[in-house]
Amino acid sequence: MDLKEIKQIIDLMKRSDLTEFEIEEQDLKLRICRDSKHAVPVVAHAPVAAAPVAAPAPVAPAPAASAPAEDKNALVVKSPMVGTFYRSPSPDSKPFVDVGTAVQPDSVVCIIEAMKVMNEIQSEVKGIITEMLVENGQAVEYGQPLFKLKAS
Amino acid sequence: MSEVSDAEILAAFLRVDDAFVSGTAIAEDTGLSRVAIKGRLDRLREQGFDFEAVRNKGYRLETIPGYLHPSLLAAYLLEMNAPVNIHYFEETDSTNTQANRLLAEGEETPFVVIAGRQTAGRGRRGREWYSADAGNLYLSLALRPQLTPARMQRFTLWMGLATCLAIKEICNIELRLKWPNDLHWQGKKVAGMLTEARSDSEHLIELVFGIGLNVNGVTDEFPPEVRAVASSLREAAGGGAAGGFEINIIAAALMSRLVEATEAYLDGSYGDIFEQQWPQYDALVGKAVTIEQAEGEIAGQYAGIDASGRVLLRLDSGEIKAFSAGDVTIKKQ
Question: What is the DSSP string of A10-45?
Fold first, then answer.
């Protein structure tokens, strides 16, 4: 399966009511979830209505509606600066973390480039990544949530 | 450590310039016996030094190695009265990577890692830096600054400018700065810098500033793709440095200037020099440029930098837009 095919699946999902898709081949397991309301990811400390969060929880496969009670346990890694978000040390290397990665407080979770200083950002909390809130290469603001974690 | 003493012995020669030094004087300076000194000089002879020995006059330093030599480098630093904690490697993967390893081991800062060659020299976002030429400089300065990440905004710009000013002073060559901190000679890159930091949400924990400076590199011998865009101090000096520059002097002077520059940045005293000097060395003044972003290329007229060091572009619409990251290319006229 290549990127083009994955894109086709995503497009298909956008055009239908499908919110979850899973496929398993020899050496590939792909799972795509999306919020049926097409909403932007909800910031952790905004427990307004019990809006369904798109978080594809990797361990327990129950991504549909996360209760507000669970949100209270959610940890968030925020950007300490304005800059550009990178998921990996270089374009050819593996991402620092992914959904499902267990991190320690000193684990590097991403790089934020600000004025050509490549800042490795540490998690500061112990937990498991449940959601990536920012895309690779995206501009981020000071204090912007980058990752959501579940305390472990 | 014997290396320290070698540096002290060599410093005794540097102090008298080209004159003779008596064995007794070196013995007094270093606390070594005259026999031990003779042994040391013999060993240095094997490393590319040569000393003329004349009865009743002593020794004269005739030849120094044409490559980076840790004791000679340390001797120059002693002479400049610039104590710098140096970790020298004949070859390493990357001085930034090595500095990060030393930081992780708890090495006291500030310190400098310098290497004769790098096997995996790198730039921004994993780009390669050509590092096989032992006539060039590869060094990294490591710090544990007590600053908030937000206060680092102009750091890389300032370090680029400080390098430019140091090269003007040491080699009398005026390079140009291409935002944020590439050093150019007639549009070709002479030095590149890579700053890496580790931060938590409030503080900068560690900082490594790395620089690759093409000193004596003969770009004809560089790989073709590098040759087209690279230059060196030797080439910039034209006929003025036919035999090339003494790399140990340049390394020592640059290191001490860079350490000073970081101190000036941390205590905030750099601001006036930065604001005065940046426009003098700015390669982009009056140029039409494009800036490459993740979302695509944006073209405009260069309009200087703002107070936080971001590059300003005047777009066709007349709007002025600030950018904090991206590759700037000067448009061909």
Answer: HHHHHHSS--EEEEEETTEEEEEE--TT-PPPPPTT
Residue A127 lies in a domain: yes
Q: Could you tell me which of A148, A152, A144, A145 has the C-alpha nearest to residue A127?
A: A152
Asked whether the beta carbons of residue A116 and residue B124 sit closer than 8 angstroms, the reply is yes
ipTM over cut 0.90: no
Q: Tens digits of per-residue pLDDT, A47-85?
A: 334 444 444 444 443 334 444 445 566 889 999 888 899
Predicted confidence band at A19 (pLDDT cuts at 50, 70, 90)?
low
Mean pLDDT of chain A: 73
Q: What is the nearest CA distance from B282 to chain A, expressed in angstroms?
A: 16
| A28 and A78 both lie in a single domain | no
Whether residue B126 and residue A78 make contact (CB cut-off 8 A), yes or no, is: no
Q: What is the pLDDT of residue A1?
A: 67
User: Which residues constitute the domain of residue A105?
Assistant: 74-151
pLDDT in tens, B313-333: 999 999 999 988 888 998 876
Residue that is written with structure tokens 């969060």 in the block? A53
Side chain identity, residue A88: S
Per CATH, the number for B288-330 is 2.30.30.100
Q: HSE-up of B261 (CA within 13 Å, CB side)?
A: 24
Number of structural domains chain A divides into = 2
Please tell us whether the domain made up of B3-63 is placed in CATH 1.20.1260.10: no
Q: Kindly list the residues from chain A whose CB atom is less than 8 angstroms away from the CB atom of residue B193.
A: 116
CB contact under 8 A, B196 and A120: yes
Strands B137-143 and A145-151: unpaired
Q: What is the CA radius of gyration of chain B?
A: 22
Angle, vertex CA B115, rays to CA B114 and CA B118, nearest 5 = 130
Shortest Cα–Cα distance, B150 to chain A (Å): 6
Query: Which chain A residue is nearest to residue B160, measuring alpha carbons?
Result: A116
Domain boundaries, chain B: 3-63, 70-281, 288-330
Query: B211: number of CA atoms within 13 Å, CB side?
Result: 26
Q: Which of 1.10.287.1080, 3.30.930.10, 3.30.230.10, 3.90.1300.10 is the CATH number of B70-281?
A: 3.30.930.10
- Does any domain span residue A95? yes
Residue B322: closest C-alpha in chain A? A115
Q: Does A141 touch chain B (CB under 8 A)?
A: no
